[in-house]
Amino acid sequence: MNYNDFYLEGVNWIGEVTKEGVSATKGRGELFSGLFIRPELPENNQPSDPELHGLTPEQLKGAIRVSLENGATGVCLFTPGRMTDEHWKALASEVFSK
Q1: What is the three-class DSSP state of 67?
Q2: CB-facing half-sphere around the CA of 10: CA atoms within 13 A
Q3: Which of 22, 38, 59, 90 sits at 20 to 30 Å (Cα–Cα) from 45?
């Protein structure tokens, strides 16, 4: 499993490390992208604490897409209690579009 949040990197990075991880497993296992959900914060608040960074709904959508496109078996959401209605819509739009 790879994790996005602690590195404060963008969605494209998630795709890159997913591709690396899938390549490194050489078919001996499955890889999941661990995606951290951003808590609801004021619109212009970009926290520096990795625990509060997480993905916005739009970023979640892109993270799921690049994870699956780069060979991830699936995704795991951390912390699902932070999911807003918009996060759930983003998740559904990517999962059910395939």
Answers
A1: helix
A2: 2
A3: 90
pLDDT at 19 over 70: yes
What is the enclosing helix (H) or strand (E) of 92? helix 85-95
And the tokens for 64?
């799921």
With tokens 């994790």, the residue in question is 3
DSSP output for 8-25: T--HHHHHHHHHHHHHHH
**Rounded CA separation 77/36 (Å):** 6
**Span 36-56, pLDDT tens digits:** 998 776 566 655 666 667 899
Non-local (6+) Cβ contacts of 60 within 8 A are 35, 37, 87, 90, 91
Q: Cα Rg for the chain, rounded, in angstroms?
A: 13
